[in-house]
Amino acid sequence: MSEPRDTRSRILDVAEELFSENGVDRVSIRDITKKARVNLAAINYHFGSKEDLIAAVFERRIVPMNEARLAALDAVERTSPMGPRLEDILESFIRPTIQHSGTTTAGGKAFSKLFGRCLSEPSPEIEALLKRQFEPLSERLNAALTKALPKLSRSDIFWCLKFTFGALHHWHLTKDRFLPAWLAKTEDEEQIKKLIAFSAAGFRAT
Amino acid sequence: MSEPRDTRSRILDVAEELFSENGVDRVSIRDITKKARVNLAAINYHFGSKEDLIAAVFERRIVPMNEARLAALDAVERTSPMGPRLEDILESFIRPTIQHSGTTTAGGKAFSKLFGRCLSEPSPEIEALLKRQFEPLSERLNAALTKALPKLSRSDIFWCLKFTFGALHHWHLTKDRFLPAWLAKTEDEEQIKKLIAFSAAGFRAT
DNA sequence: AATCGTTTCAAACGAACGTATGAGCGAACC
DNA sequence: GGTTCGCTCATACGTTCGTTTGAAACGATT
User: What's the CA dihedral at A43, A46, A51, A55 to 10 degrees?
Assistant: First the structure.
């Protein structure tokens, strides 16, 4: 293991892990710098403020993740010019979340939880970041889904997409919490397939 | 309007509103006591600590809400002894959330957001409260759903229920945020009907 | 060897936090 | 009418927070 990379990256990694575990407000700058073994002032030097660090932590994962979503959507739209299947659209939206979850924690995926947490972050800066990041994606998805489901109204598609968003986020946030003892261990891969099938059926039922 | 009821209730109402708007960690005891126009020491006097106040705020809504859910489940199981329909089970779980959302904010429903926020609260005390409150409900729901969907495994039911949970929570949390300009205004009633249909189809598709 | 921009360091700052204290108050009770 | 009890009050305590500062260390360039 040892100390990987430079100060800036070490801060990002540790911050991501601690934020995802405890929430951004319950993690102090001193917690981060101590665990990352860097000086207390390093965060303000490299990022400006704690708020900016939080934004950087989110941004590092969300930007490439949403780029991957858009690329996946491009791909399925290219291969089926008549409009892709509903399941393929949903998959282009769901699958990238497990590929961009990060692996900073030994064994665990830190951003998985952080990602689930970010939507309930009340910080105005994060909210602005989310809006900026998700709006273009949401537009594209709505357009593709409108084509795939011509019988549904824009509103119906919007709300169904929100339900899917919610199921996905909640799954990320709690997939290793609140689990009953009898539950069989399952792979992420299997579960996102279930989620895609679940959501697709939900869309079609509306 | 004027000042309703006693100090304790005023604190609970204001705390619920501020917590739901800003998250428990970004609301100070001074914010609450100032807005409620009570003395700074009142919270520690009446509740013991801030953490205990948070628990009281959650508990005030969650306990009767989950009681209502169990009662609704009882009711549908009583009226159809062969096992209730899937939609009725889901409704007994979903509908009480909009009836127990509270109306403390003028016009808005404060707990609606707080309720959506509570699952991502990292506080161990809240997590324990949630576990205690949701476990019996989850057991009952799993049992009822197993009966209604004999083809599904316990695991499948568990995960589909999690998806439904997530959709419901996310809807509560963001039903008045991140909305596009073109979106038509819809009633809660209509939307929970959509959610029930959406989830029911999702369950059946698995 | 001297200079310069960059990064790290220990130390301190003021503000805000949750909590504790002890006096003060009014109504209820003996 | 004095005492008790539940509650409110202003004020203070100690801690922790995010941030700032100015000097020291470093590496690259001249």
Answer: -120
